[in-house]
Amino acid sequence: MYKGAISALVLPFKNGSIDEEAYREFIEWQIESGINGLVPCGTTGESATLTHAEHEKAIHICIDQVKKRVPVIAGCGSNNTVEAIRLCKFAKDAGADSAMLITPYYNKPTQEGLFRHYKAVNDEVAIPLFVYNVPSRTGCHVTPNTMARLYKELPNIIGIKEATGNLVQVSNILEQTDDKFTMLIGDDNTVLPSLAIGAHGTISVTSNVMPKEVSALCKAWFDGNTEEAKRLHYLIEPLNRAMFVEANPIPVKTALHLMGKMTAELRLPLTEMSEAGEKVLRDAMKLLKLI
């Protein structure tokens, strides 16, 4: 069910509020372009700045627009375990296919604390769960041993969004799990090498801008067309780099604005791109004929 290119959705704003029309149109474009799944309310969707009501609205709109055509993995993480449980209950009731929970940020829990956090959610909500490991943002790292323990002991844990960009980490997790475990890569630069060692796909920032190409890369690999997968990897790489020249989602939202998909409006503390950063982004997009 979770295989290929899954977009970590950007959330459009207009005059301080969610731009529902642009959001629905963007979701539709993603599906029409061949994307294999969608993640509302992740980091790329500026989840950290949303009110509870906005968080629920963004998930609800996505599920309603998708209408089960592709899987929806709802972003439900929090550094407050009770809040994570509440968000997961909402996602399940709203019809999400699964939920993604970032590791508790700022608190800096031990590995045992991480296990108990996810166990609490597992025990309260019967929905498939993805762990989201991105220590560069959270200051909290899920070790391969802990991930294997979560998977083996908690029946609702089905996989991970692994965003360290560390192939050894990816390999060690896969080594300690089994073929039912779902490895989704959260680092766009290492999607292809991760597929080569057993990953099932990517939860991608870049696919917001190039859904057709990122999906095609994954499909080419799974079809055994390694040369085409490699060609697409190197084609996309300039945009992958540009997506992270400043903090995500500043570049990706700017790129979509340049393509006419939405406004460039961000919420503080995120701000518009610097002149130097935008030049890098524009150069990459011109190279790929996106603008």
Report on the structure:
The chain has 291 residues and is of the alpha/beta class. The protein has one domain: Aldolase class I (TIM Barrel, Alpha-Beta Barrel). 47% of the residues lie in helices and 13% in strands. It is built from 12 helices and 10 strands. It has helices spanning 20-32, 52-66, 81-94, 111-124, 135-138, 144-153, 167-176, 191-196, 211-222, 226-242, 250-258, 275-287, and strands spanning 4-8, 13-14, 17-18, 37-39, 73-75, 98-102, 129-133, 157-162, 182-185, 201-204. The strands form 2 sheets. An 8-stranded parallel β-sheet has the order 4-1-10-9-8-7-6-5. It has a two-stranded antiparallel ribbon with strand order 2-3. A hairpin with a 2-residue loop joins strand 2 (13-14) and strand 3. Helix 1 crosses helix 2 and helix 3 (81-94) runs parallel beside helix 4 (111-124). The longest helix is centred in the C-terminal third of the chain and has 17 residues, at 226-242.
CATH fold call: TIM Barrel
**So, the CATH homologous superfamily?**
Aldolase class I
Strand fraction: 5-15%
CATH architecture label: Alpha-Beta Barrel
Low-confidence stretches: none
Q: What general outline do the C-alpha atoms trace?
A: globular
N-to-C order of helices and strands: EEEHEHEHEHEHHEHEHEHHHH
Widest beta sheet: strand line-up = 4-1-10-9-8-7-6-5
Question: What is the number of E strands?
Answer: 10
Which CATH class? Alpha Beta
Largest sheet: 8 strands, parallel
- Kindly provide the radius of gyration, computed on alpha-carbon positions and rounded to a whole number of angstroms: 18 Å
In total, how many domains does the architecture comprise? 1
The mean pLDDT is 97
